Automatic annotation (TrEMBL):
InterPro entries: ARM-like, ARM-type_fold, CND1/NCAPD3, Cnd1_C, Condensin_cplx_su1, Condensin_cplx_su1_N. It is found in: Chromosome; Nucleus. Residues 397-471, 795-842, 1219-1246 are annotated as: Disordered. This is Condensin complex subunit 1. Signal peptide: none annotated. Residues 1-168 form the Condensin complex subunit 1 N-terminal domain.
Length: 1246
């Protein structure tokens, strides 16, 4: 092969040189000879390239860029015959470049001198160029830059010098259609042809041919190839594509979405080219019109049906935002469309929309005058200031009388900019916003501030700079110019600048308001199921915070709940972008915003800043936000990212002697308590400080501070979680003589009428039971002291003083938020002391009585937990003793006997503790809690006598907790609790009772299961919190099998369409979890349909349909679908109302009908619904079922059965319609006969 190629190339080389000499010598006699010889060599070259490529394709290893033959020990021996050695070592790849170079040399001769006939010349050129196209079809060969360069030259020479344009166009179109890898090379060839050979006709012809092609939606290969070609050609030669854009836009509505995507990318590239073009002298107005027209095309495509196209639009906008030209006029429209696309149904589109919104903030052009921040309040203040200044100037100056020594150029500019805007000109603000171009704003800013204008469009400033240079040449008689005229000219110029600045500020305000308006949607996307959306939303709020936007704080606060996300692994998107874990991203965002040191601060300032940021995170935080913040701080502490200096600074803020804002001291101890979860030594080393500050002077003055101090003290016991079934207890306890408990007792007993006392007392009791060795003794003392305080008679003077100083609640105040939490503080306007008279006329402080009852209830509920710990400790001791005996006695019989004894002993311990809880705590002769049970029942049972809301709150709360202690007490007072739940007007009391019923169900589920109807009433409560609490409690009880669903699932289904999104989301979560239980939704589906469709519980038809559409998504098993079809068909015969027919037919249409058995069941049920088919809605639903069954049916099976069923349906519909018409006619005739009979009767009477 090598020798053959050498012979052909050497011969052709000699012939080319001879032909060139004869052509130069104008020797016409030798032309026929050369023509014949060149034709032969062209054939040889063509044949050899085909043969060599075919032989070379057998080994892919030969087709490597700049590859060399493998020699030495690594060489592979494929044949033992020496004769084939040359063939085996021949590498075609190495010979391609010289061969193409020779063909290029061949094409440099003047072919029109040798071939007089065009047809003959075209045949020769095609024979020469065909091998080049064949080489290009090999994707591996086209990776070699040398081969590509030589191939490009051959084709360009053939087109430019030998009339190969038509043949090249045909070949290139075919290559684009069948070889996707040639899209970019062909674009490069056309660009080379334009730049180096000054030939654009071929490119224009190919573009025209492409614009006339039609691409099918099912064809995915060729549209992708053509789209890549167009994009690459636009990048290389935008002017070429721009000339043919009007023709190419025919594909903007193509069925093939890759072509639509290509057109969008082309439009974006053309916008970039026009905006960045500084060489072409084009009128600025025309240039702006072109850009506006192209942007309009992009805006239209934001509504494209295909999500990939919509995403491509967003990507195009994103690339345009990176340009030095900021497109200030189009930027507002871009932001408006992006905000709308945040609610797109496609997750990928929403993700790109969030990313683009972030990019718009990062690249905003409003930082030239006032820096980068985009704080809405500050910009509104700037707008008010410049508006006021502008009005004052217009008021003080007669603008029409001011001469302009520079030819009234400013007025002409204003007139030009206001043309065609008469409608908006009537509104002062809108007219001002349209008065000036962004480029002029940059110029005004440059004059006022001396800053660079690098972020605005470049076309208008050029025009202005030219005019500014020309101004000094105006003929002005300086001798005759008065001071007044100079001042007037200066004021006119200042007036123009002010209007430009006002326009600039107005545009910034419009942009900021649009972004701020999207914050609610972005907050919702923080909890999206798409990981990419969540990460992009987090990045947006981080960027918004850096630019001081007001919406950022809400998003940053809501974002912290993502700390509970379980998925923390890194993944990659469809476009290959790596995504971090959500939890990792959250920690990173908070670190960057609040906890990482800044480069320009000293170490002490760094510590102060980080501590300040930590404390500020607690300001106004809800319980859920504090819980999430606690997990975040714990994670940071575990990872060692909180420095010791920061912890010391927090202790300093907490313990500083001087008066500081209460929120700062509170925030410091809250953060310290959170950190100590990971490292208890943080608290244990400063125990004296906690007792001195939080339970000392500052704690008595600020009960909230005392409360959080108690929470921090609880960390002393350690945070080790108990393993289920384990008898070990690693918690740390202190003797009751420890100063800690004396301080806690003083804090609880310190006289106070503040509602914050309840929260403090709750956490103080928790601390006593968590850290005390014998907490019951101290709590008994507390109850006795409060009993004495509550029932000791007071003098009238003391009573009046207590009344004047108290902050007890009046009758209509709110109640506690949670069953086991402190009562909710009332509004300050309704706080006053209430005294309750008894039958003997004594007076007592109801607030102190409320404190006593609250303590009774909380001590009772904590004592239950304490008894469980005592039981575990006793079992542990028995177990340790048994193990010691087992070690001493090695006999097997003895071991078995000991195991039996230990098991019996553990059972005895459990029975004894249960007996103490059931009979001793509330009914024992020596139990202090037994004294208060009847009192609490009495207060709860006589609301007309005990009207104080705080007292009623505390009594109801205590009653609920005592009912969790003993089943006997619970049974005796359960109806009373339900009665309070039904009659109480206070939503907080009702909400607390709902939560209490959930706790009671955990303790004594049989009692609640028998009265579950009363619990479901909370779902119809008018108060949203009561409804939410009821839904959460029922979700917990049903999913954990504590109560059985007895037909009330329909009330839960109503919540799916609740107006409050939180309740609707909770309901959806419930049904999603319920669907994982075996057949739970399937078994209750008929009851749900009946509940929502018939009777007093029925909902409107639209709500019914949306609810059932969601529930039926959980019916996935085919057997369940078949059974439901049968049951629903039978239900037709029991209904008489058209609404019920329609509801049943709608439910039938929701089933998938994937199997023939489902359709068979439906056909068999025809007698039950055939007389209902005259109803148009019912018939439409059955038609939908038929369409669904046909789509699921395999194509190779006949659908004769379905056609027959369709005919039967149509027949019964027509028959039913006739029966209905006949019935109406008969009824009408009967009415007419009745009227005639009435008239006759009246006439005879007369």
């Amino acid at each position: 092969m090598s020798k053959l190629l050498d012979s052909i190339t050497s011969g052709l080389q000699a012939e080319i040189e001879a032909a060139q000499r004869d052509i130069d010598a104008d020797d016409h006699d030798s032309f026929p000879t050369h023509r014949q010889v060149l034709d032969v060599y062209a054939f040889f070259i063509h044949w050899f390239v085909m043969a060599a490529d075919k032989a070379g394709s057998r080994s892919s290893e030969d087709i490597v860029v700049a590859s060399k033959p493998k020699r030495g020990k690594g060489a592979t021996k494929t044949s033992r015959k020496p004769a084939n050695h040359d063939a085996e070592t021949f590498t075609w790849t190495e010979q391609i470049i010289p061969t193409l170079a020779l063909i290029g040399k061949l094409l440099r001769i003047k072919s029109h001198r040798i071939w007089l006939s065009t047809a003959e010349r075209d045949t020769f050129i095609n024979c020469v160029t065909q091998p080049v196209y064949h080489i290009m079809e090999n994707e591996a060969l086209m990776k070699s830059e040398g081969i590509k360069t030589e191939a490009y030259k051959v084709i360009c020479l053939a087109v430019k010098n030998h009339g190969h344009a038509f043949g090249a166009q045909t070949s290139m179109i075919q290559c684009l259609q069948y070889f996707e890898h040639l899209a970019e090379p062909i674009a490069e060839i056309l660009t080379l042809l334009k730049d180096q050979f000054d030939h654009t006709q071929l490119a224009e012809g190919i573009l025209r041919e492409i614009s006339g092609k039609t691409f099918n939606a099912q064809d995915t290969k060729s549209p992708r190839s053509f789209s890549r070609f167009l994009i690459r050609l636009t990048d290389l030669s935008p002017l070429l594509v721009r000339k043919q854009l009007s023709l190419l836009l025919a594909h903007i509505d193509s069925e093939s979405y890759p072509m639509r995507m290509a057109l969008i990318e082309i439009v974006g590239a053309l916008i970039k080219d026009i905006a960045m073009d500084e060489e072409t002298q084009v009128d600025a107005h025309k240039k702006e019109n072109r850009i506006n027209a192209l942007f309009d095309l992009l805006f239209e495509r934001t509504l494209d049906l295909n999500s990939y196209v919509r995403a491509k639009v967003l990507n195009t906008f994103s690339r345009l935002c990176d340009l030095p030209v900021k497109f200030p006029k189009q930027r507002v429209d871009i932001t408006k469309h992006v905000v709308a696309m945040l609610q797109d149904k496609s997750s990928s589109v929403r993700r790109y929309a969030i990313a683009l919104l972030t990019k718009l903030i990062l690249t905003h052009p409003f930082g030239l005058l006032h820096g980068g921040p985009l704080n809405l309040t500050e910009w509104e203040g700037r707008y008010d200031t410049v508006t006021k200044e502008l009005k004052e100037m217009e008021k003080n100056l007669g603008m029409g009388d001011i001469p302009d020594p520079e030819g009234t150029q400013a007025e002409q500019q204003e007139t030009e900019k206001q043309e065609g805007d008469a409608e908006e000109a009537s509104d002062e603000e809108e007219a001002d916003e349209d008065d000036a171009d962004a480029a002029e704003v940059a110029e005004a800013m440059e004059e006022d501030e001396g800053e660079d204008e690098g972020s605005v469009e470049r076309t208008q400033p050029k025009k202005e700079k030219t005019s500014k240079k020309a101004r000094p040449s105006l003929p002005v008689d300086l001798a005759n110019v008065t001071d007044e005229q100079v001042l007037a000219a200066f004021d006119a110029e200042k007036h123009v600048k002010l209007k430009l600045i006002k326009k600039y500020v107005a545009d910034a305000l419009s942009f900021i308001r649009q972004v701020e308006g999207a914050s609610d949607t972005l907050s919702q996307l923080l909890v999206s199921t798409s990981k990419a959306e969540v990460l992009e939303s987090m990045e947006f709020f981080k960027t918004a915070h850096e630019y001081e936007m007001e919406c950022a704080e809400t998003g940053i606060t809501k974002m912290i709940h993502l700390i509970w996300t379980k998925d923390n692994s890194a993944t990659s998107t469809e476009d290959g972008k790596e995504l971090k874990g959500i939890r990792s991203k959250l920690v990173e965002v908070y670190r960057l915003l609040y906890f990482d040191p800044l480069p320009d601060l000293e170490p002490k300032q760094q510590v102060n800043r980080i501590a300040k940021n930590m404390i500020e995170r607690t300001y106004g935080a809800s319980l859920a936000e504090l819980t999430s913040l606690e997990e975040l701080m714990r994670s940071l502490m575990v990872d060692g990212q909180i420095h010791t200096d920061v912890i010391n600074k927090l202790w300093h803020v907490y313990s500083v002697e001087r008066e500081i804002p209460r929120c700062q001291r509170r925030g410091a101890i809250i953060i310290l308590g959170m950190i100590s979860l990971a490292k208890p030594e943080v608290v244990s080393e400063r125990l004296d400080t906690l007792l001195k500050v939080g339970l000392g002077r500052f704690g008595k003055a600020d009960l909230v501070l005392a409360r959080y101090t108690c929470i921090a003290l609880q960390r002393l016991g350690g945070s080790t979680k108990k393993v289920k079934g384990s008898l070990t207890d690693k918690s740390i306890r202190f003797p009751m003589e420890h100063p800690l408990f004396r301080k806690l007792q003083d804090a609880i007993e310190n006289p106070s009428h503040s509602m914050d006392w309840f929260g403090m007392a709750e956490q103080a009791v928790n601390t006593i039971y968590l850290l005390g060795e014998q907490p019951d003794s101290l709590c008994t003392t507390l109850l006795r002291n409060f009993t004495v305080r509550a029932f000791t008679p007071k003098s009238k003077t003391a009573t009046q003083d207590a009344t004047n100083g108290s902050q007890a609640m009046d009758e209509d105040g709110p109640e506690p938020e949670a069953k086991d939490g402190p009562p909710t503080p009332p509004s300050p306007s309704k706080t006053e002391a209430t005294e309750q008279p008894n039958e003997q006329g004594d007076l007592g402080d109801s607030f102190i009585l409320s404190q006593l009852l609250f303590l009774v209830g909380h001590v009772a509920i904590k004592h239950i937990v304490h008894l469980e710990l005592v039981e575990r400790d006793l079992k542990r001791r028995k177990d340790e003793g048994a193990k010691e005996k087992q070690a001493k006695n090695a006999g097997k019989a003895v071991i078995e006997e000991l195991d039996q004894i230990v098991g019996n002993a553990e059972d005895d311990i459990g029975d004894h503790i249960a007996d103490v809880r059931e009979r001793e705590m509330l009914y024992g002769a020596n139990s202090i809690l037994a004294t208060f049970g009847p009192m609490i029942v009495h207060v709860c049972g006589t609301p007309k006598r005990y009207k104080d809301p705080t007292l009623r709150n505390a009594a109801t709360l205590a009653l609920s907790k005592l009912m969790c202690v003993s089943s006997r007490f619970c049974e005796e007072n359960l109806l009373l609790l339900f009665k309070i739940f039904e009659t109480s007007k206070d939503p907080n009391i009702r909400g607390n009772i709902v939560i209490a019923l959930g706790d009671i169900a955990v303790c004594f589920n049989n009692m609640i299961d028998e009265n579950s109807d009363n619990l479901y009433r909370g779902l119809t409560d008018k108060d949203l919190n009561v409804k939410k609490n009821t839904l959460m409690v029922l979700t917990h009880l049903i999913l954990n099998g504590m109560i059985k669903v007895k037909g009330q699932l329909g009330e839960m289904a109503k919540c799916l369409e609740d107006e409050d999104t939180r309740i609707a989301d909770l309901a959806k979560l419930f049904f999603t979890e319920l669907s994982t239980k075996d057949n739970a939704i399937y078994n209750n589906l008929p009851d749900v349909i009946s509940h929502l469709s018939v009777g007093e519980h029925a909902v409107d038809e639209e709500t019914f349909q949306s609810t059932m559409k969601y529930i039926f998504t959980f019916i996935e098993k085919e057997k369940q679908a078949e059974s439901i079809v049968e049951k629903l068909c039978q239900r037709f015969r029991l209904t008489e109302e058209p609404r019920q027919w329609q509801d049943i037919a709608f439910c039938l249409s929701l089933l998938p009908y994937k199997s023939e058995r489902s359709m068979k069941k439906l056909i068999e049920g025809l007698p039950f619904y055939q007389d209902k088919l005259h109803n148009e809605v019912v018939y439409t639903r059955f038609s939908e079922i038929l369409a669904k069954a046909r789509s699921n049916k395999s194509t190779n099976k006949p659908d004769s059965e379905l056609k027959e069923f369709e005919a039967i349906l149509l027949e019964h519909r027509d028959k039913g319609a006739e029966d209905q018409a006949l019935e109406k006619t008969m009824k009408k005739k009967a009415d007419q006969a009745k009227k005639r009979a009435t008239r006759r009767g009246g006439g005879s009477a007369e």
